[in-house]
């Protein structure tokens, strides 16, 4: 079951999205909000897998700011920005705040479901009018940023690749105990619960390619 939260300042749109998503047995709506401030509070309380977030919300925080805060506090939660805007400047901003998905409000219900399924499974979903080649350049231009140290980033990278603690220690020429300590610090910094969440975080934030 995918736990989904819907954020939109227009009640009719929000309720309509909820009714649409409730048609899919795999999706469970666990919360809703009318602005960015409510979105952050509700997300921290309900711990959703995926948040469908409107960008333009005049009252309170906008969708970009709310998304950035939620991704920082709940790195395992995926954010799909929902908007009427298909211009490059809006898409670039979504990439900057590290939104996992970007989809237009005019999209069909099956596309919305596809977006939710994709980001839930660790994939990026940007359904936009910008050519794919240009979109990839926009992602490539956005440099990875992290609260982790270089050593911690190396450990995340190796963990994604399937290395055990012993193998990581041999590769980095440190003790297995030091690897364990680093992993503990990483989990605390990112507020992650287990190895699965660590791997998902690494995949979603570019750590697979970071050290190539």
3D structure, described in words:
Strand 3 (50-54), helix 3 and strand 4 form a beta-alpha-beta unit. This protein starts with a strand and ends with a helix. It has a six-stranded parallel β-sheet, sandwiched between helices. It is 53% helix and 15% strand. The chain has helices spanning 11-21, 36-46, 63-73, 88-96, 109-120, 132-141, 150-160, 165-172, 176-190, 195-204, 207-210; strands at residues 2-7, 27-33, 50-54, 78-83, 101-104, 125-127. The protein has two domains: 2-141, Rossmann fold; 150-210, Arc Repressor Mutant, subunit A, CATH 1.10.10.10. The protein has 212 residues and is α/β, with parallel strands linked by helices. Pfam families: GerE, Response_reg. This is DNA-binding NarL/FixJ family response regulator. Residues 3-120 form the Response regulatory domain. Its main location: cytoplasm.
Summarize the structure.
It is found in: Cytoplasm. By secondary structure, this protein is of the alpha/beta class.
Radius of gyration: 18 Å
Give the helices and strands as they follow along the chain. Answer: EHEHEHEHEHEHHHHHH
Quick check: average pLDDT?
88
The CATH architecture term of the largest domain is: 3-Layer(aba) Sandwich
Low-confidence stretches: none
Percentage of residues in strands: 5-15%
Shape designation: globular
N- to C-terminal distance: 35 Å
Which homologous superfamily in CATH is the superfamily of the largest domain?
Answer: Response regulator
Secondary-structure-based class equals alpha/beta
Under the CATH scheme, which class of the largest domain?
Alpha Beta
How is the biggest beta sheet arranged?
6 strands, parallel
Order of strands across the biggest sheet?
2-1-3-4-5-6
Number of strands: 6
Q: What is the number of independent domains?
A: 2
Number of helices: 11
Helix proportion: 40-55%
The CATH topology of the largest domain: Rossmann fold
